[in-house]
Amino acid sequence: MADIQLVDVSLRDGNQSLWGATGLRTAHIAEIAPVMNRVGFRALDFTSSTHMGVAVRTHREDPWERIRLTRAAAPDTPLQFIGTGFRFISWERAHPDLMRLAYDCLVRAGISRFVVLDPTHDVPAMLANARMIRQAGATEIIAALTYTISAVHDDAFYAGIAGQVAASPDIDRAYVKDPAGLLTPERARTLIPAVRARLAGKELELHAHTSLGLSPLTCLAAAELGVQVLQVACGALAGGTSLPDAERLVANLRELGHTVGVDGRLLARVARYFDRLAAAESLPAGRPREYDAAFTRHQVAGGVMTTLRRQLSELGLEHRFGAVMDEVSRVRAELGYPIMVTPFPQMVIGQALSNVLTGTRYETVPDQVIRYVLGSFGRPTAPVDPEVLDRILDRPRARELAAEPPPLSPAELRARLPRGICDEELLLRFGMPGEEVDAMLAGTPPARHYNPEVQPVLRLLRELGSRPPAARLVIDKPGFRLELRGRPRD
Description:
With about 500 residues, the chain is an alpha/beta fold. It folds into two domains: about 5-280, TIM Barrel, CATH 3.20.20; about 295-400, Conserved carboxylase domain (Cyclin A, domain 1). It has 22 helices and eleven strands. The protein has helices spanning about 10-20, 25-40, 50-60, 65-75, 95-110, 125-135, 155-165, 185-195, 215-225, 245-255, 265-280, 295-300, 300-315, 320-335, 345-360, 365-375, 385-395, 395-400, 410-415, 425-430, 435-440, 455-465; strands at about 5-10, 45-50, 80-85, 115, 140-145, 175-180, 205-210, 230, 260, 470-475, 480-485. Helix 5 crosses helix 6 (about 125-135) and helix 7 runs parallel beside helix 8. The chain is globular, with a radius of gyration of 24 Å.
């Protein structure tokens, strides 16, 4: 039986999976961070450049200040950043010097643990990214082995990547990242030993979403196979398309004889906080998911599937849904089996939809698919079908995109911006429209405290403040009645 540690993903991946990355504000995080610090988590999966952009765009909050506030509130638990190394906030490719600046700023703000992720498993790119992060001062760097099902993603494929990253002094450990929740306990029993055998003693973690209801059992199998760190979420931010519920997984692990070094009382306190927050802010709570065998074939997540159905309905083409889904599988194979995580599902589905609606395959090709073939998102995992490659590249638009100028360096970018801006603002302005950054800077500093229980009262007061003055106010509910009368004017 093993001693199992937990990484909590509620603040980043749970928020992203269930609440579109927009649900949590700085005050929400600052309120619960001191408690999360004392639970005994190995780390908190805290942010990504996408989350940082959402903080600015949606909440007009400074994401750098959010990191600093959380670091101060949770000084004993490492904060984690996940990124590909080729972009920052925007999907525009970033200059290597700009990524170095981003990592320097992240470490200074309080991030110490980094996940290097390349969805095409371009190992040289991953190792170059890890080297930059190490130079910035990170204390722990994790290589992501992103799991999927395809003709090329077998156990030997992942073991080969594990062997390459294990040889790097800039990689401290690895994790199997299963963003679609496809990993079964049966496959884990062959995959995990194959990967661990090539890691040269470096530890392996498991990050598996509950999208198909498999990962709670897969985590138990992983613990038996020597995986010592499992990633979880708490309360309303667990389940659904998020990760396994921390309380339930801890109970199951302990029932099987494993030791889990977390404080159960504080863990429950964190979970109930997110439950109350979800209720107060009208945010959905994660729910257990039913197994869907068709998902293992097309791997199109529910949100993307809903968008596709709506698009077809608006065009009066609902009856073509089956044809489009069959084309999705074919296009994915022809493009070298990209893993179906953002932005690749949008690319594959867009191309499949175009192929079906025009009646001529690859007659129309979206710019993002052309950029993918050109290598803007990394080297495709498997070679693109030669005939498809020729069809895509033998067009004027492909030549235009291939001739695009290289990304701006920080010095070139700074020359285009107002003088005197700091590095953190420079990075935000690289990835975002200037007016959104201006609105954030002009806004008031975010609150640092949040109480879910008082939110209904605050909403009522805001609503009353927007209405004409009333001479009499009555609040009447079971067991409670409050009547307020205005003082007569002289």
